[in-house]
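Review session, final week

We close the course with one last complete record, chosen because it touches almost every idea we covered. It is TPR repeat methyltransferase, a protein from Rhodanobacter soli with 436 residues. Go through it on your own first, then we will talk.
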Amino acid sequence: MVAMLRQAVEVHQAGQLDAAEALYRRTLQMQAGQPDALHFLGVLCHQRGRSDEGIRLIRMALRAAPLHADAHNNLGNIHKETGKLADAEACYRQALAYNGQHHDALSNLALVLEAQQRFQEAFEAYAELLERAPRLSLAHYLMGMYLRRHVNEIGDLEHAVACFRNAVRCDGSNVRALDALGVTLYMLGRQDEAVGAYRDWLGREPDNPVPRHMLAACGGEAAPPRADDAYVREVFDRFAESFDEQLLKNLDYRAPQVLVDALIGVLGVAEGALDVLDAGCGTGLCGPLIRPHARRLDGVDLSGGMLEKARLRGGYDDLVAAELTAYLQDHPETWDVVLSADTLVYFGDLVEVLAATHAALRAGGRVAFTLEAMDADEDRSELSSSGRYRHARRYVERVLDAAGFVEVSIAASALRKEVGKPVAGWVVLARKSRRG
């Protein structure tokens, strides 16, 4: 039985969930109520989307082994990931009561306190973790991220930089800290140092598209005409779990609402008669806003992780993982509306994607999208140190005209915040001629 349980854990850790579940259940047939088998099977059930069953199994394990700090911590994780923050907090505190050195439980406690907007308590928990585990890379990283999310003064960013550098010193394999370090340095305007951070990261992971793109964004290499698919997929798959919370709560993200409001202004009364494509749909924030106008609502995105969140949000008739330009090219004269909130910021050259959009619209169809604004009179775009592209108004006008669009409207609007300041953007509307 012990050997079978050990094997179950090994295949579980290897991601072989079917085999692991079968072995855990066989273990429980041999010894009903075995707490480790119940605990790990509960974790597995949550991973497979059966969170209620996972909670029930871990609670059974805790009745057999009430002092099991790891089980309390994992039960807290399920509550946290299903939005039951008060229950999660209680579990983490219970884990710490039985094991005061349970660093995972303490870091998780800090995270749920922050999620409940109990910021002083969260800061104290992050500080306590650092005090208890000064050589733990994660402790420095989490404190740095907290400081960057809650910037009150420039000193907070400077402190975050020190935290990320310490995280790398404690664990050279912690490339998340190098990523965070580069972003924080560009936020401070210290481009040369950001280049150094991204070169360091690329040296450790030469096949990773993220440091390569960000190195170019900070001027360390020539800028590509658009972000590589692998970069976009990697960033947003990694970001999917916390995307809505980070953008909506921490960055005052307004692009979907501003874009759809502008579009509704020209569409008029919702009649549910239009075929709509949400191009770069992400987690589906535009979906509920545009759905009343749609007979059919499709979404396309490169990131499978983001699409899964959109699928859970609901409202879409179809969701497809694909590169946007190629997808549009494969669907001529298919939609009445193509809207795209903060997707074309990953395209420097808009010529091909807007030509493909024009071809994918029916006669008289509309395109609506947002861009980050470049304050310049020139006809050009540029890759900014954020990793996103900015576009000048004259450039956007020229490309839309060349693609065949008419009735072009480009309005200035703040779409999000960065370091507490609004990010200038364009809200762009245009129509395909009714003559096709």
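Two points worth writing down before the exam:
Strands lie at 274-279, 294-301, 318-321, 335-340, 361-373, 381-383, 389-391, 405-418, 421-432.
The chain has two domains: 2-225, 240-432.
Good luck, everyone.
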